[in-house]
Amino acid sequence: MIILKVGGGKKINWDYIAQDLKKIREEFVIVHGANAWMKEISERLGESEKMIISPSGQISRYTNEKTMDILTMVYSGLVNKKIVVSLQKYGINAIGLSGADGRVWLAKRKDAILSFQNGKTKIIRDSLTGKVVSINTQLILQLVENGYVPVITIPAITPDGELINVDNDRAIAVMAKDLKIDEIIMLFEAPGLLTDPNDEDTLIKEVKRSELEDYFKKTEKRMRKKILGVKEAFDNGVKKIYFGDGRIPFPVSSALNGNGTIFS
Amino acid sequence: MIILKVGGGKKINWDYIAQDLKKIREEFVIVHGANAWMKEISERLGESEKMIISPSGQISRYTNEKTMDILTMVYSGLVNKKIVVSLQKYGINAIGLSGADGRVWLAKRKDAILSFQNGKTKIIRDSLTGKVVSINTQLILQLVENGYVPVITIPAITPDGELINVDNDRAIAVMAKDLKIDEIIMLFEAPGLLTDPNDEDTLIKEVKRSELEDYFKKTEKRMRKKILGVKEAFDNGVKKIYFGDGRIPFPVSSALNGNGTIFS
Question: Of A7, A93, B112, B244, which has the fewest Cβ atoms less than 10 A away?
């Protein structure tokens, strides 16, 4: 079984992904983002997104109740179902789930998060943010064994039944551990990890596990979180992680064939 | 197994429903609406809802692509997940699904629908509207056997992988047939079927199957569609249908005990 994580940009081509998955003889669990839609719908609803930067430079979404409503609509509704139909169109029997459904992503809420702004550190207590701590592997395996492709996204759920925003990239590290997964593919709107994020010709073809710390320090924002996810996935027993381009034909095969970045 | 259909009003008390379900020793499949939220979010997005009235008096939602996006967000995202967490909070392992997930509600799109307005009949061809024709019973039974409570809502999906708006009340009649279900409970924001829809003291305690045609002619709008759903459910082998109040404590037991309207 392979975990396929796909970013939430609008240039991701789900027709290409579906056509490719249909041909590959392998079981997949899909995790996806929805950033671009989240930004658009938030603006249309007059609720601009607020980001929190931690003292260590981690970026995350400030998620109060209003934001959680929009996030739930956009991620587990609009985008999740758009992906489900894209896959169904090519005969892949996709089932969309939020982390709350069947407690597939059980999470712990953070009591407080630190925000670093204008040289000052602030404590934020009302953000519905947390971390996935365990996976309902029984549900995922049961669906996969019956020929379904689970398509999973935020929010996650706490044991008390509260919806919680978690980081998708770090959630897949926990999934990999609980499902004993060897390989993860991450597709986004770039050919892979780039030396210069603004120049697609600066693709890094290979990264050794020992070099990860260096890359973590060098990268910024979302890519930094992806590198953190990669680190955690390795710590959780994953052997190989592929970064690849979600905009091109045969994006999954292409990543597996080493046309993006291979972490090993 | 019982199908529990719950209306989409904001006065429906999901805590009461969850507490009640937790105590009843029976398997449930839940179907829900989200009308009140649909109206609110549509307005906030500047897309007012348009209704179509057929020449025979049926009312339905005009569903173009924009409406479908909002419908998908609100029904299968926001409200579906709110219900899932309400149930999870009381230890009911709910899994929210749209009709598209695992093709649980496979539908046929209508080529055209008739709209009757200002004395004229118009043909509408771009409404993503249809009818559920079959149910993925294997998926529902597999989930229920493993202790999950499926929580299902629109949209449905066509064989070509298109999202389609269908009538929830009529979809449950097809579910009842395919799942060989004897009993359906329908909860909404009223004590049951009323002689005068504006007077909650005019509850009709019992309706015989032979009287349905009369009631169909007498009722209007949404209630008329519910009566149509009841008729179709009886045609599909259902033995008893309960209408009950979704706002009160123990709403499910209360309906089963005959405190609403019993159709038999």
Answer: B112
